[in-house]
Design goal:
By secondary structure, this protein is an alpha+beta fold. The chain contains eight helices and eight strands, in the order βββββααααββαβααα. The strands form two sheets. A five-stranded mixed β-barrel has the order 1-2-3-5-4. Strands 7-6-8 form a three-stranded antiparallel beta sheet. α2 runs antiparallel to α8. The structure holds zinc ion (ZN).
Amino acid sequence: MAAQNAEGVILRKYYLRETSYILVIFTREFGKIRGVIKGVRNPYPQFAGNFEIFTQCQLLFYRKKNRQMDLITQCEALDFFLPVRKDIERLTYASYFIELIDMVTSDYDVNEKLYRTLTESLRLLGSGASAKRVGRIFELKFLEALGLSPRLDECAECGSPIKEESCFSVKSGGVLCRVCGRRSRSCLRMSLGTVNFMRKIQLSELPKTSRIKVSRDVGKETEDILKRFLQYHINRPVKSLKFLRQLQDEGIV
Ligand SMILES: [Zn+2]
C-alpha cells in the first residue's frame, strides 16, 4: 500500500518498547490516526523529543486494514510550540485543547476546520496573548468547527433582536431575550458586553481574535457560560480543566 503524507498534531503518546512508540495524531488530511513508530533511537523514553504531545509534525505513514494500527515511518517536527511549554498555565490550556479534540474525534473522521482551530490556537497561545482569552477563543471556534456554535445574533427561542442584558440557555443553544428568558428555568446571566465579546470572536478569523479586548467581568461570565455549554455537549469530565482549577485555587496562575 502507498505511503500517505499528512500534517498532524500529536494528541497522545505511549512508550511501547525501547525503540518504539504508539502515537495518536490528529491530522489535517485524515482526521485522527493511531500508529506505531519503530526504530526510534532514544535512550531516554521520557523525553521523546519529536513525539511530545501537541507537537505539530509532518508524517509519512502506511494505513493498515482490519483495525490494525497504522505504521508511521516518519514524524518530523514542524513546531514544538516552545513558548507554550515554558509556562504552566499555557501548557495546561494546550493540554485542555488536545483533550477536547481527542474526546470529540473518531479515527479517520476528517475535520479540517477543527485542525486549523487547534493549530492556530496553539500558535496564539505561544504568542503572548492572555492564556485565558485564548482558552475562550478556542472554545468558541471549537464549537463552530463541530457545528455547535451558540446563537448570539438573536434570541435562540423567538428570533427577536437582543438589545439589553439577557441570559444564556444551554438547552436552547444561545442567548434568550427577556421574554423568553423569564420562561426558561435555567438561564445563565449574560450581559450585553458578553454577548458582544463572544459575537466578535465568532465573526473574526482566529489569528485576529487576540486583538479583541475584554474586561475581567465579561471574561469571567464568558468562561462560566462556555464551561456549562461544553459540559452539556461533551458530557464527560475534562481532566486538564480540573487541573487548571487547582492551579487557580492555589494562586499559581
Ligand atoms: Zn425570545
